[in-house]
Amino acid sequence: MMNPLKQKLFLNNRHKHFHLPFENAYQSLNHIKMASVKQQWPDTTIKNTEQELAQTLSALTIPEPDIKETVGIAVGSRGIDHLQVVVKQCITFLKDKGYDPFIIPAMGSHGGATPEGQRHVLKTFGITEETMKVPILADMATLQIGEYPPNIPVHFSQTANHADHIVVINRIKSHTKFHAPLESGLCKMLCIGLGKAAGASEYHLKAVSHGFSWIESIAQMIIQKHSVLFGLALIENQYGQLAHIEAISGSEIPDREKQLLVKAKQLMPSIPFDGLDVLIIDEIGKNISGIGMDSNITGRHRDIIGDFFDWPHVKRIFVRGLSSHTNGNANGIGLADVVTSQCVESIDFEKTYMNALTALSPEKATIPLFFDTDKDCLAVCLHTIGLKQATSIRMVWIQNTAQLNQFMISEGLKNELYDKKFLSRTSDWETIKFDETNKLIEFYPFNTSIIE
C-alpha cells in the first residue's frame, strides 16, 4: 500500500501550474450554455415506511422461540433510503417475537476489510450500537461450510454461523459487473457479504473463469445449512426512494428475488440522452455504487470479466470528487478519464486498493489524469473529443449516478429535450461559470419550477 509520506510526495510533485496548450478548448468553455432539467416519473414512493414494513413482517410465518435464540441481522455497505428505519424496526419485530438480535456487517472486504472500518461504514448510515440498541459484531473471521464445484470453497462468517438464525437486509438492483437472473441483492449478500474478505476474494477469483452463475447455488447451500429466518428485500425507484419492501421467508429468497429484480430494473433511472461528449459527475463513492459510479448509468465498464460501452455512450467522464460517506474509498475512479487533484488527495489508498484487488479489478483503482481546477479538467475533456462548436457540445452534469431526477444539460442537447415528454427544463440557458479559483460555480440546488 502507498504509505502517507509517499502519497504526500506523489501529490506534491504533480503538475501544479502546468499550462495546458488548449486555447481552443478554453475558448469553447466561455461559450457553452447549460440549463437544469427535471425528469418526472410516476410516483411509486412508499408514503409510510414503518407501516409498509409492519404489514410485510406481520405476513411472515416464523416460530416464536421457547428460549431466547440469537438472530444475526446482516446489513451491508450501501446507502439505501430509510435503511436506519428498516433495520431498527426489524430489530424491534424480532425482539417482540422473543428473539435476541444483533447486527453483522455483511460487506465482504469493504471498510478496508477491518472490523473498525466496517463499523464505521454502518455508522455513516446512522447504524450504531447506541441507535439500534443491539450489539454490532464486526469481526472478519470465516469458516468453510462446504464446497461448490468446480473447487469453490464456501466461506461463511463465523459469527453468523454461531447465531441461531440469520436475517438479511439488502436492496435488489442491477449489478454493475454482470447481468443474470440474480444480481445484487439478498443472495449476493448471503454469499459475498457474509463471506467477508476471504469469501469475497475467493468468489471473485473464481468468477474470472466461471462468472457469477454460482450465486444462486451457494445461497441455496447457505439457506439449507443455516436457519435464514427471512430476508428484507428493498427496491428504490428512479428518485432513489423506497418503492417496495418485502419480507421473504428464507427458503423462498432465491426464487422471489428473481421476480423482484425485474421490478427493480423497471424502476431504474437513466440519462435520457445518447452519444454524450462529456459527463460531469460531482461525486462518486461506495454509498452510491459498488464501483463509485453505477456503470448501468454511465454505460462504461472495465473489468477482466468483461468490458462494455453502452448507453449513453460517453466519450469523456470527468469526476470532481468523492462523496463524504465513502470514507476515502475511491473504487471506480479508474472508470473516469479526468478527475480533480482534490479528488485524488481525498483517496484512502489502502481502502481503495483492498476493494479493487479483492474484486480482481485493479483497473477501477487506476488514477486518471488529474488537474488542480475544474476548468483545466473540462478543457482536457473538450480537447480530447476533437474540436466542436460550443453550441453542438453534448454535455450532461449530474450530482451522482443515484440522483438523476434533476441535472444539467448543454445547449447541444436542446433539440432533443423537446421530444422527451417526461423531461422539462427548469432554468434559463446560462453560460457555465467558474469562480476565482477556476472551480465550476454549481447550479445546485435546482429551480424546480418548469418554465418550458
Short description:
With 452 residues, the protein is of the alpha/beta class. The protein contains 16 helices and 18 strands.
What structural keywords apply?
alpha/beta; 19% strand; disordered C terminus; 452 residues; single chain
Would you give an account of this structure?
With 452 residues, the chain is an alpha/beta fold. It folds into two domains: 4-41 and 270-431, no CATH class; 49-266, LarA, N-terminal domain (Rossmann fold), CATH 3.40.50.11440. The chain contains 16 helices and 18 strands. Strands 1, 9, 12, 13, 14, 15, 16, 17 and 18 form a nine-stranded mixed beta sheet that branches. A five-stranded mixed beta sheet has the order 3-2-6-7-8, with helices on both faces. Strand 15 (395-398) and strand 16 (406-410) form a beta hairpin. Helix 2 crosses helix 15 (374-383) and helix 8 packs across helix 10 (215-225). The termini are far apart. Residues 445-452 have low confidence and may be disordered.
The CATH topology of the largest domain turns out to be Rossmann fold
- How far is it from the N-terminal to the C-terminal residue, by CA? 52 Å
Question: Which consecutive residue ranges, at least 5 long each, have pLDDT under 50?
Answer: 445-452
What gross morphology would you assign? globular
Rg measurement, Å? 23 Å
- For the record, the CATH architecture of the largest domain stands as 3-Layer(aba) Sandwich
Q: What is the CATH superfamily label of the largest domain?
A: LarA, N-terminal domain
The level-1 CATH class of the largest domain: Alpha Beta
Overall mean pLDDT: 90
How many strand units? 18
Query: Counting H and I runs of at least 4 residues, what is the number of helices?
Result: 16
How does the major sheet shape up? 9 strands, mixed
Estimated structural class:
alpha/beta
Number of domains: 2
Give the helix level as a range of percent: 25-40%
Q: Beta-strand level of the residues, as a percent range?
A: 15-25%
